[in-house]
Each structure stands twice: as C-alpha cells, then as structure tokens.
C-alpha cells in the first residue's frame, strides 16, 4: 500500500484543502473577536478604575506601571500607547453589545481608526 495520493484524488486533496482554509479563516475571526473584546474590557477597567475623575495624574502613572508589568508578562502589544488606545476605544464605544455585534466584521485596526475619527 502506498502513502502517495494518486493524481485521480486531486479533487479529494482540493476538498480537504478548502476545509482547512475555511477552518483557519473561522479561527482568525474568532481570535480577532476575542482580542477586540479583551481590549474593550481592558480599556473599560483602566478608564473606570484608574483614570476616573480626580485621579487622572495618578492614573497615568498607574498606566505606565501596568504597561511595564504586562509587557514583561505577555510581551509586545501592551505598551502605554496601546493601553491608552484601548481606553479611547472604550470611551468611543461604550456599549459592549455594539462591540460584540460588530467585532466579527471589523478588526482591531478598524476600531482604532474609527476611535480616532472626529464626528460633528
């Protein structure tokens, strides 16, 4: 018995290849969705618990410390600039239900662009 796929089985190979590609696409969408929700929640926590009201100066120091800690623990992507972008994301899109609905269609990059647009 041979392990080689015969030329007559190219349709089979193509079908399996399509299944794999579709699964990879669904996985990418699911990961993007989860990351977008994570960034919204991080922005919410920072906005509400650290930057709220009179504690703004103190909050900026906390964000800097948080950034250093998260970067040490999880690597790139948790810089102070990124954390502040997450806060901005939360500030612009306050309704989690909207983010949950749209995050399957938009990437984090799209939300960053939308968060930076000025309306009105």
Fraction of residues in helices?
Answer: over 70%
User: What is the mean predicted local confidence, pLDDT?
Assistant: 87
Number of strands: 0
- Helix count, per DSSP? 5
Along the chain, the helix and strand elements come as: HHHHH
- Percentage of residues in DSSP E strands: under 5%
Query: What Rg do the Cα atoms give?
Result: 21 Å
Total of domains? 1
Basic shape: elongated
What is the SS-derived class?
mainly alpha
The biggest beta sheet reads: none
Question: What's the topology here?
Answer:
Layout: H1 10-50, H2 56-74, H3 80-92, H4 96-102, H5 108-116
Helix pairs in contact: 1-3, 3-5
Structure description:
The protein has 120 residues and is mainly α. The chain has one domain. Helix content is 74%, strand content 0%. It is built from 5 helices and no strands. The longest helix has 41 residues, at 10-50. It starts with 9 loop residues before the first helix and ends with a helix. This is YhcG N-terminal domain-containing protein. It holds the Pfam family DUF1016_N. Residues 16-115 form the YhcG N-terminal domain.
């Amino acid at each position: 018995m041979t392990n080689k796929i015969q030329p007559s089985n190219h349709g089979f190979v193509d079908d399996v290849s399509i299944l794999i590609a579709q699964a990879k696409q669904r996985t990418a969408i699911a990961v993007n969705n989860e990351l977008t929700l994570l960034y919204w929640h991080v922005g919410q926590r920072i906005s509400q618990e650290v930057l709220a009201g009179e504690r703004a100066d103190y909050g900026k120091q906390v964000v800097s410390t948080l950034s250093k800690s998260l970067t040490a623990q999880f690597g790139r992507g948790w810089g102070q600039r990124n954390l502040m972008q997450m806060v901005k994301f939360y500030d612009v899109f306050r309704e989690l239900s909207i983010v949950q609905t749209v995050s399957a269609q938009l990437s984090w990059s799209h939300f960053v662009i939308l968060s930076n647009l000025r309306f009105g």
